[in-house]
Design goal:
seven-stranded parallel sheet, two-stranded antiparallel sheet, alpha/beta, TIM Barrel, single chain, 9 helices, 13% strand
Length: 278
């Protein structure tokens, strides 16, 4: 949800289309530095949060962030920016900061995983009084991105010192593009059984609900409207009726225009999938 006009405006937009949860950027996602959130903005945000009833709100980190950056200048900027985003989430009482683990840029997955964990341990130590969780997002595996296999996410989690500060987000488009076939009932069950075996469903706190423009195993991240892509309706019908995920926020990241009519369409479709007696 856009924060154009201030972070509080996300609640106004969310209410206008009937959101029960939503995701926001807490700052401009294409810039390293940004001005601090003012006390007045924080107060407006919290007042509207009470009115809207939209919760939890999930934050997504800037796309510039790469916690295993090869360039030391970029790594330093990344850590500063991530710390700022953790602080912003804490000020706004946002419980989850979702982020792409990072791209190793040729240094190899093992090195990338180690560097991501080092970055997170440093940042968690610097924000040790915070409650916000750092949430690793499953990726499509484009380029040298880490996090397209559940084992990679587990390896990062294993190296995190303060385990209560780390959690995981599954993106349906990303896992499909990474080769997990959730388009059939059997594939869906196998995928989440594997997730549970390797990571544990207790670490899953956010779901990104997106269809995929590209085929299974393409490792290309291209989101599509629900039921309009290569995944199809079956996975989303199963997801919306899965008792394990009833309390987990489900976030749309599908293409949309300013009037958000596409969000309305996708929300309506997902809600129609729910079996009311389930």
């Amino acid at each position: 949800m856009s924060i154009d006009g201030g972070v509080h405006t996300a609640h106004e937009r969310g209410m206008s289309i009937g959101c029960s949860t939503m995701q926001i950027f807490t700052k401009n996602n294409t810039q390293w530095a940004t001005r601090p959130i003012s006390k007045g903005e924080i107060e407006k945000y919290k007042a509207l949060e009470r009115t809207s009833g939209i919760r939890p709100v999930v934050a997504h980190s800037s796309y510039l962030i790469n916690l295993c950056a090869r360039d030391p200048v970029i790594l330093k900027k990344t850590r500063q920016a991530f710390r700022d985003e953790l602080n912003r989430c804490e000020l706004l009482n946002i419980p989850y900061l979702v982020f792409h683990p990072g791209s190793h840029m040729g240094r190899g997955e093992r090195d990338g995983i180690k560097r991501i964990a080092e970055s997170l341990n440093l940042l968690h130590e610097e924000t040790k009084d915070h409650r916000v969780k750092s949430v690793l997002e499953s990726t499509a595996g484009q380029g040298t991105a880490i996090g397209y296999r559940f084992r990679q996410l587990r390896d990062i989690v294993d190296e995190i010192e303060v385990k209560e500060r780390i959690a995981v987000c599954v993106d349906t488009c990303h896992v499909f593009a990474a080769g997990y076939d959730i388009s059939t009932e059997k594939g869906y069950e196998n995928t989440f059984d594997e997730f549970n075996d390797i990571i544990g469903l207790d670490r899953l706190v956010v779901l990104h609900v997106n269809d995929s423009k590209r085929e299974l195993g393409s490792r290309v991240d291209r989101h599509e409207h629900i039921g309009k892509g290569r995944i199809g309706n079956t996975a989303f019908r199963l997801l919306m009726n899965d008792p394990r995920f009833v309390q987990i926020p489900k976030i749309l990241e599908t293409p949309k225009s300013k009037d958000m009519h596409e969000d309305v369409m996708n929300l309506r479709k997902l809600r129609r999938f729910i079996h009311r007696n389930s």
